[in-house]
């Protein structure tokens, strides 16, 4: 992609048809393929660790990273097949979530383990390649009109829903997916403080997305 287009690759923005140009559609297909490849690679790694398909699926569905990458794959498959973009609010929120996946991993989690072989490729795909590709696609092609400050609050719904799910799951199994959610190690007070910090980070990131969208649509 050459630079950042200040005009979204969408026909007839005023009528909100959101029909994408061929380059936008084909590149969405590439993003979808990258997401599917990363998820498939991680599935193979998880199957090797658990020894069963059910165990692999259970392990995979415990992680915000995997679930968010799955949302990316499904969304971009739909874009590539239909040749039309979903709402600007959904695309911006999805981009924000996958960017946070990358930031949290590389700042807080990457130093905690050293994957090798296929696990390294899965790791880089889920936490680096897919977030970069989604961000570039959003900058270049996504419709951006209509985003407001209120969307930054709305976009908190997915991480908050996941947090509740992870805590319930951890209570039932005794295993928590991330150190900052591990009640057995840092207690509920520590989890609450971490949750507040991440919520603020998501909200500020959402405000940045709204500001970027307004700047790019000028």
Summarize this entry quickly.
With 218 residues, the chain is mostly helical. It has 8 helices and 2 strands.
Overview of this protein structure:
The protein is an all-alpha fold. It has one domain (10-217). Helix content is 73%, strand content 2%. The protein contains eight helices and two strands, in the order ββαααααααα. The chain has helices at residues 22-50, 53-60, 64-82, 88-109, 118-141, 149-154, 157-173, 183-217, and strands at 10-11, 19-20. Strands 1-2 form a two-stranded antiparallel ribbon. A hairpin with a 7-residue loop joins strand 1 and strand 2 (19-20). Mean pLDDT is 90; it is low at 1-17.
Number of domains: 1
Give the fraction of residues assigned to helices.
Answer: over 70%
Order of helices and strands: EEHHHHHHHH
Largest β sheet strand count, sense and barrel closure: 2 strands, antiparallel
Average predicted local confidence, pLDDT: 90
* Order of strands across the main sheet: 1-2
Question: What integer value in Å does the Rg equal?
Answer: 18 Å
Which percent band covers the strand fraction?
under 5%
Shape: globular
Distance between the termini: 20 Å
Total count of strands: 2
Structural class: mainly alpha
Count helical runs.
8
Low-confidence stretches: 1-17
